[in-house]
Amino acid sequence: MRPEHHRVGTGPDPEDEVTLLDEREPDHPIINRTTLAALAAVTFAPFIVSAAMGEDFGEGNALLWTLGDIVWGGFLLCALALVALTVGVLVRAAVQSRSSRGASA
User: Fold this and answer.
1) CB contact set of 22 (below 8 Å; sequence gap of 6+)
2) Which residue from 39, 51, 73, 103 has the fewest beta carbons nearer than 10 Å?
């Protein structure tokens, strides 16, 4: 069963209409290879910055110490999000594989 496409527009011109986000095509998921690659790049940046700061970064300076903690926390959050989204993509692929295998049998 396919959902109806509801259009939102600002005027009578059909080119002004925009498909609502929850009405996107099921063949184009938001979390895809490009999204995961971008998140990996975003995760890599704070990792490199925290590595460049080193263990003794901001020794005696509370502002620099706090900055180092924020960068490290950002890296950990990005890494956790990357792992969670990757597991989600793998589970989705396994479910789709089982459903297509079951439909063809």
Assistant:
1) none
2) 103
